[in-house]
Amino acid sequence: MGLLVHILFWLVVAVVGATVLSFFFSWYEAANADPSLMESRFRPRSLFFALRLIANQSGAILWSLLLRPIGWFMGKGSSPLRNDQMPIILLHGLFQNQGCLLPLKRSLHRAGFFNIHTLPLPSWHNVEYLTEQVAKKVDALRHATGFSKVHLVGHSMGGILARNFIQIRGGEKKVASCVLIGVPNNGSRLAPFAISPLGRLLIPESEFLQRLAEAPLPSQIPMVSIYSRHDNFVQPATYAHLSGIANVELSGLGHTTLLYSSVVHKEVISFLRGLSS
User: Fold this and answer.
1) Angular region, 126: left φ>0, alpha ψ -120 to 50, beta rest
2) How is the beta sheet containing 246-250 ordered, strand by strand?
3) Which of 18, 156, 205, 272 is deepest in the core (most CB within 10 A)?
4) Rounded Cα gap, residues 96 and 64, in angstroms
5) Using an 8 Å Cβ cutoff, are 121 and 130 in contact?
6) 3-state secondary structure labels for all residues of 162-196
7) What is the CA 32 to chain-centroid distance, rounded?
8) Crossing angle, helix 127-145 and helix 157-167, to 10 degrees?
């Protein structure tokens, strides 16, 4: 029992420490872009806001770790197939698994969306292999349900895979809509620190991102990018903005916190409901 407590203590220390470092870098980027922020950095309100950001983001990471074992047992992550609702596929991000999508899935269920599916996207594979897994899932659901299209909702790297499928891999005729949550559409200046080849694809102006930027966004697919101006991974946060689609900028949410935010869930639900109105 003592060993377990010891391990948990150092896990929390590591998560909080990494979170603090990422927000320091975020502050560095923001202050360089807007030097006027320096004037309020030590005000109580600003300090409380920063502490809340760090606490919420650290909590979100720890919550993701707790949900990870559930993700291992989700198999292919399929809900019971239904032919009365167009399928929705949720795509998780780098170093996550299907477990982190459970809160969003639950919110969608409460809103009346039941044909929801996930799939494992292991971070040690390359982007084209993972995009192919998305393509296979899309086709399997189309054939099983009778719907010709699906909705895609992707967080972080999951959104990059969705874009790759739609813009480059010929998926534009199979997708009814696409929601991007905290997606580094233009990369991130933190990407050079990535420990995986997949993460290094997100270095700003990388060959992959340039190819994605040059590929047209299909005008027939409604898309929205939901992001936070305080994202501690997408640096600068404006790199989540994607020209040519709807963009919703939120505040006070870190990168992982976006996954569990009721505000984000409401934005996703509102977008999906709006497609049928």
Assistant:
1) beta
2) 116-118, 88-91, 150-155, 175-181, 223-228, 246-250
3) 156
4) 8
5) yes
6) HHHHHHCCCCCCCEEEEEEECCCCCCCCCHHHCCC
7) 26
8) 70
Backbone dihedral region for residue 119 (phi beyond 0: left; psi -120 to 50: alpha; all else: beta): beta
Lookup: tokens for 61: 């990471």
**Distance (Å, whole) CA 192 – CA 173:** 34
Cα 15 to chain centroid distance, Å, stands at 19
Model confidence at 73, pLDDT cuts 50, 70, 90, reads confident
Helix (H) or strand (E) holding 90: strand 88-91
Q: What share of the chain is helix, strand, coil (3-state, %, to 5)?
A: 55, 10, 35
> CB under 8 Å to 183, separation ≥6 — which residues?
154, 155, 156, 158, 159, 160, 163, 225, 227, 234, 240, 242
**pLDDT, tens digit (0-9, with 9 covering 90-100), for 17-42:** 889 999 888 888 877 777 877 777 77
Residues recorded for the chain:
277
Q: List pLDDT tens digits, range 103-156.
A: 999 999 999 999 999 999 999 999 999 999 999 999 999 999 999 999 999 999
Cβ neighbours of residue 41 under 8 Å, at least 6 residues apart? Answer: 27, 31
Residue 32 confidence (pLDDT): 79
Crossing angle, helix 2-33 and helix 44-72, to 10 degrees? 130
pLDDT at 77: 45
| Residue matched to tokens 């409380």 | 48
List CB contacts of 67: < 8 A, sequence separation 6 or more. 99, 100, 102
pLDDT digits 0-9 by tens, 238-270: 999 999 999 999 999 999 999 999 999 999 999
